[in-house]
Amino acid sequence: MEFKDLTKEQAIEIAKLAFGHDDWITSEIEAKYQPYIPEWYEDAQEAFIVKFEGYFAGTNTKKYVTWIYPNLNVCQYYLDGHLKTLGVSNQRIIQKKFTEYGFE
Q: How many domains does the chain have?
């Protein structure tokens, strides 16, 4: 399976697993595929980018961004003036999902 064949629904499922708290998500979840086209922007990277808002501390919310890369690395960030790195939950389960989706 090619990386670009990952569906938006699958990318969202991976992002939810990485976040680890479905019930803390407070907004619609947006997912888009970003192709590698270096002519369009300086730091071109192929990735799926998933964005949503969710609880951060108590009743405070933050915007979260999950990047899924072609090597199947998953990185998660929250926005607090600029992107700050978060840990990724359920890493083993995420890798099993990629296998289920047909990635090796």
A: 1
The mean pLDDT value for 50-58 works out to: 90
Whole-model pTM? 0.88
Q: Which helix (H) or strand (E) holds 99?
A: helix 91-100
Give residue for tokens 């915007």.
Answer: 63
Structural domain boundaries, residue 60: 3-100
Could you tell me where the beta strands, DSSP code E, fall in the chain?
30-34, 47-57, 60-68, 74-79, 83-86
Give tens-digit pLDDT for 55-75.
Answer: 987 788 999 999 999 999 999
Question: Taking a C-beta distance cutoff of 8 angstroms, is the pair 68, 91 a contact?
Answer: no
